[in-house]
Amino acid sequence: MALPLSTQNLEELDKGVRTFFWTKQVEGVTFQKRRLVAKNRLPAEHSVGGLQVPLLSTTATSFRLNLLQRIYKRMGHPPHLPPSTLPIIMESLLQMAGRPTLLDHVERLGPLQWRKTATMLKQRNLLFSQIFLAGAELLQIYEEHPDTWHQAAIVGHTAESIFTISTLEATDLDHREIITIGQLLRCGENGTLNLQPHEEQLATLHPNLRIKLERLLQNIINKRPSTQDKWPLLVTPLTSLLNSSNNISTIYRKHVMRSSTAHIGIAPAYLTRERDRIYVPDRRTFSAAYGILNLPMMPSKTKEIAFQVLNRTIWTNNKAHKSGIREDPECDYCGEEETMEHLLHNCDSYSAIVWEETSCLITELCAQQVGHEVARIQLTPKEIIYNIPHPSLLLFLTEDRPRKAILLLIQEIKRNIIYRRMNIRPGQLGQPVDRVRVLAHILSVVKKLKAMLEYTGILTNKASIFLMSSAQSYLEGAAGG
Q1: Which of 8, 15, 143, 449 has fewest C-beta within 10 Å?
Q2: pTM (2 decimals)?
Q3: Cα(452)–Cα(275) distance, rounded to whole angstroms?
Q4: CA 322 → CA 23, 35, 168, 270, 316, distances in Å?
Q5: pLDDT at 22 over 80
Q6: What is the C-alpha separation between 137 and 141, in angstroms, rounded?
Q7: CA pair distance 153, 177, nearest whole angstrom
């Protein structure tokens, strides 16, 4: 991935990844599946309905940054790192191109200068050229980031516009040890920066350079960046990043993912629910609902179901009807229109009964936990669809693992409801499911969850296993009655 692949090559590889996601093969024939996530949301966080799958261009850039970091760390030939000829090759190429050393690039130059170096190296060594392009991309991210904009290098800043700083002017700044944007701004009484030029320092510079820096500062000040907890610093962000013990690629990928997430803002499923006048909580609560995907021990298929529920991509009879695959949109159990909400919790012939019995089960488990009767717990779309823990769980199940076991049980029951509907037998069509069969369905989920907890560690999950054993006993008694 660090090799110099063209943009076209990377786009073709990305297309292959998307094809893998949304196609399937049956007896050697490729069929198109539903596209469950739009292309622009693939690299975004789960909280906006994304898959957190980085584009290959992002992966390639991150590996090039790792290579840059390794070369930089070997510049001084430290004894604890294996010897490498890459630093020598890079310095020779920079010298041949008439460009500053790598150390100067890292400590004093911004993305425009890094891109200039990349262009001059392109004919000599494409790999090193793309390494400098990767560095320029990361530097620009830090220029625009609200926490690090003041640490950006002055020379080569993207806000330089057409008034670029010459080599002699850059040397003058270097001699004065004026490196970062924060050094050009005035400090307040508490030592933090404010958005006012440091007139005394600018007055000591050559008039032409002062005019250029004033224009540069004005371009930055016009964006009204935050000055909270900002101090003038001599060190650029890249200096700290390259000296870090962590791989710089991880930091870069996180920045790209957060940028994609911020651009989307909110998952489209939130807006479509508002449009269709379907109950949806506030935006923060809705985005937090995707956090259920981080629940320990949740099987991948269960995560997929939870994700599709939030994204409104569960396949229903109503969707099949609108797609021309089915003649009617009716529920196979009760004959009403089968939307996702109906399928999961509103069907009086099945799903509503499932959650009624599950509510009784959780109430009983909480009562056993505290040793006395508790108010009946009633699961609603808040708990079923949007994964909000019921207040009683937080109140009565004080241990973390048993509480998470109940949350996982709810997710597994959602999966089971969809599985049962997808595999409904002809004799069940148009017939409500009786209570004993519903209890048997819930019992099968409890047994499956208990077995999984035992498999992953009896001692670690002792309290959760005991809770599931109690649930099994309760359901077996209820079904027998």
Answers
A1: 8
A2: 0.84
A3: 40
A4: 21, 16, 68, 21, 10
A5: no
A6: 6
A7: 12
